[in-house]
Amino acid sequence: MPFAPCLSVKDTAASIAFYKKLGFDVDSSTASPGDDIHMLTYQGGFCGMLYSNADLKKWLPVLADTPIGFAGMFYLAVDNFDAAHDHIAEHAEIVKDTDTDHTGQRMFYFRDPDGYVIGINDNAALQASDLGKYA
């Protein structure tokens, strides 16, 4: 099973609006009544969850004193890298613009409203590279 990130956010409505502007979809149908958790998808594929920080602290009290955000990043492989870049750049802060690494991966990074950094890479280049065995 792949990792399923659950992002603790201050305001789920603001985060949902932000991610929708970037082309993501949100499905809230699996949440229990009163539970502020939402499934985040991109082009039909599951990416992770958005969870109200207040609710997360109740669900996992061990995280009660943990600040929102983290040191690290998440990656999302997209089929149309250039279109994704142009669209996301209109609505989000690009913290590191397009670069190509030693494996041939093109990637850029943006920050969401809660400080999470998301890396976008080219799915075709990922599949063709040595990293493709992990994708």
Q: What do you see in this structure?
A:
With 135 residues, the chain is of the alpha/beta class. Helix content is 25%, strand content 35%. The relative contact order is 0.18.
Key words describing this protein structure:
135 residues; alpha/beta; 4 helices; 25% helix
Structural class: alpha/beta
Residues in helices, as a percent range: 25-40%
User: What share of residues are in beta strands?
Assistant: 25-35%
Computed over alpha carbons, the radius of gyration is 15 Å
> How much is the average pLDDT?
88
Strand order of the largest sheet: 1-4-3-2
What's the number of helices? Answer: 4
Low-confidence stretches: none
Distance between the termini: 12 Å
N-to-C order of helices and strands:
EHEEEHEHEEEH
Strand tally is 8
Described by strand count, sense and barrel closure, the largest sheet is:
4 strands, mixed
Q: Which of globular, elongated, flat, extended, rod-shaped describes the shape?
A: globular
Give a quick summary of the entry.
The chain has 135 residues and is an alpha/beta fold. The chain is built from 4 helices and 8 strands.
List the helices and strands and how they pair.
Elements: E1 6-9, H1 12-21, E2 24-27, E3 37-42, E4 45-52, H2 53-59, E5 74-78, H3 81-91, E6 93-100, E7 106-111, E8 117-122, H4 123-128
Parallel strand pairs: 1-4, 5-8
Antiparallel strand pairs: 2-3, 3-4, 6-7, 7-8
